[in-house]
Each structure stands twice: as structure tokens, then as C-alpha cells.
Specification:
Layout (H helix, E strand, L loop, with lengths): L1 E5 L3 E7 L5 E8 L3 H4 L1 H17 L12 H8 L10 E6 L3 E6 L5 E3 L12 H18 L7 H9 L4 H9 L12 H9 L3 H24 L8 E5 L1 H4 L3 H14 L4 E4 L4 H12 L4 H10 L6
Parallel strand pairs: 4-7, 7-8
Antiparallel strand pairs: 1-2, 2-3, 4-5, 5-6
Helix pairs in contact: 3-11, 4-5, 4-6, 7-8, 8-10, 11-12
């Protein structure tokens, strides 16, 4: 089977045998259709899939699902009769899905600002730039983000970055790389950075809590699986804000951060679909260095 995790920043592919053996893997560029267009997205997918298939000298076919389902599956035990819970991804973008024990599903449009979303690496990058610009020109509070941003882009002033984006010399995607800068500044106690991280914790929490409320899961021991680069960084300030808010509304919820890449979760979904035994899932997890969820 073929597993694909197509994200904004990268595309991972894995070819997995029915017994869970990882046969081949490949990585390509991101496939954000809103930026590169549908035609280019298809070309990227085609190239990466062929790259993996060529390692075996075989052709391959694929079934596509949203990456939040892959993240949810990655964080759940293998061999369960029914996989359910809530998953939130915060990487280049942000999204959430909820699956009830009776298979009901709830989700969000996740189209960015126009669908009520905030957060993700791109949104955080915009926040860093916004605060750094205002600090530089005097409209906002001083913040170490100003120096971190100019150092990140190798310029002397924040306005050079703003103008570079305005003129198309700096791509919007470059802002995604500022998320680690924000988390580092928050760890160091910068008040501005900490305010943004607190807001991100609020946003992630409200997505998960709303999904649980829609599915009547707040009184159950609901698994809440977190994935994506921003969350798998396990920033203490961010994680404490999320766990605190979830505990207030759903005290029995079990917060988990995935320890295998989403593409492995996609492969686990594939193994489930063919009725593979738990040993196959264990073999796949071991290929990614993890013995159990």
C-alpha cells in the first residue's frame, strides 16, 4: 500500500507491505494547492510517488484522506476494534477532526482566515513579523522577536523583510520558519512572544473542545492527539496551556503528542483497511523507531 502525507512544507511517501514492512520512502516539496495550484500539486504527487515506487521497480495506486485522520490514527493503540478521538494538527497550517465511538465525524473547513482559523506556522510567522515591525517603528512594545527576525533573514531592519514580501522577493512560505523563533523567544520569557503562544494554546484547545462537545465526548476518556511540527516540538508553555484548558472542560481526556510522522499514520490506516494484524502495525512503528503508540 502507498501512504502519503502531503503538507504545506513537504510531502512524505511510504510504500508498506501488508505485514507492516516499510519497503520504500521518499520526500518531496509541499503541496499547498492554494499556493502552487492544483496542476502543480498533482505533478508533485506524481513525481514523489514514482520516486518511491521506482525503489521497488513497481507501479502503485493511492487513496487520499485528510492528514488529521492520519495523525489521529498515529496516536491511537493498534488492534482496537474502533479508532476514535480528537486530533489537532498545527504545522504549517492548523486543522482538527473528531471521531466518535459510533463513527460520527466532525471537522472544520480549515481554509485559513476566511474560515475562522488562526495559528499554524504561517499564521505564527505573520504574528512575529507584525510585532517585530511595530516594535521597530515604535507603535508596539519592544521584543526580542525584532532581532531574531532580522537575524533569521540576514537583514538589518524588519522593514526590509516587509518590503521583500510586498515586492514578491520573499515568499509567504518563508514565514513558516519563524515559528521556532517564536517558541524560543517565549521560552526565554519575552512577554510579546508569550502572549502569542498563549493565544495559540487557546486556539488549539477551543478546536479540540468544540469537537468534543459536538460529539458528546467531554465526559469520556477521549484521546486528544496532537501533531504537526509546532506541536511535536513540545514547547512547555504551549503544552501546559493546552493540557490545562482541556482538563477544565474534559477532565478525563488523554492528551498525546504523536511520536511517528503523519505518513506512518496514513500507512496504519491502510493496514487497518486490509485487516492487517496488530503485529503488522508494530512492525511499521518499529521502522520509524517507535515500538508502541
Amino acid at each position: 500500500m502507498l501512504a502519503i502525507d502531503g503538507g504545506n512544507s513537504k510531502t512524505d511517501v511510504a510504500l508498506v507491505a501488508g505485514d507492516g514492512t516499510l519497503l520504500a520512502s521518499a520526500r518531496g516539496p509541499g503541496i499547498n494547492a492554494h499556493e502552487v495550484g492544483v496542476d502543480q500539486t498533482v505533478l508533485i504527487l506524481d513525481a514523489v510517488v514514482k520516486q518511491a515506487a521506482a525503489q521497488l521497480g513497481r507501479s502503485a495506486t493511492a487513496t487520499v484522506v485528510n492528514d488529521t485522520f492520519a495523525i489521529l490514527r498515529a496516536g491511537l493503540p493498534d488492534g482496537a476494534e474502533r479508532h476514535w478521538g480528537v486530533a489537532v494538527v498545527c504545522g504549517a497550517g492548523i486543522n482538527c477532526v473528531g471521531v466518535a465511538p459510533d463513527s460520527r465525524v466532525t471537522r472544520y473547513l480549515a481554509l485559513g482566515t476566511i474560515s475562522g482559523d488562526w495559528g499554524g506556522g504561517y499564521g505564527l510567522g505573520l504574528e512575529v513579523l507584525w510585532h517585530a515591525m511595530r516594535a521597530e517603528d515604535g507603535r508596539g512594545r519592544d521584543t526580542v522577536l525584532t532581532g531574531y527576525l532580522t537575524s533569521h533573514f540576514g537583514v538589518e531592519r524588519v522593514e526590509e523583510v516587509t518590503i521583500g514580501i510586498h515586492k514578491g522577493k520573499i515568499g509567504d512560505g518563508d514565514l513558516i520558519g519563524l515559528a521556532p523563533v517564536l517558541l524560543r523567544a517565549a521560552d526565554e520569557g519575552d512577554p510579546v512572544a508569550r502572549t502569542v503562544v498563549h493565544r495559540l494554546a487557546d486556539e488549539i484547545s477551543v478546536m479540540a473542545i468544540t469537537a468534543m462537545r459536538r460529539l458528546d465526548l467531554t465526559r469520556l476518556a477521549t484521546p486528544v492527539v496532537l501533531g504537526g511540527g509546532v506541536l511535536t516540538a513540545r514547547n512547555p508553555l504551549l503544552m501546559s496551556g493546552i493540557t490545562r484548558q482541556l482538563a477544565e472542560t474534559a477532565p478525563d481526556a488523554e492528551v498525546r503528542v504523536i511520536d511517528i510522522p503523519p505518513v506512518a499514520g496514513a500507512a496504519l490506516l491502510g493496514l487497518d483497511s486490509v485487516g492487517a494484524p496488530p503485529a503488522a502495525a508494530a512492525r511499521l512503528r518499529a521502522a520509524y523507531g517507535i515500538s508502541r503508540p
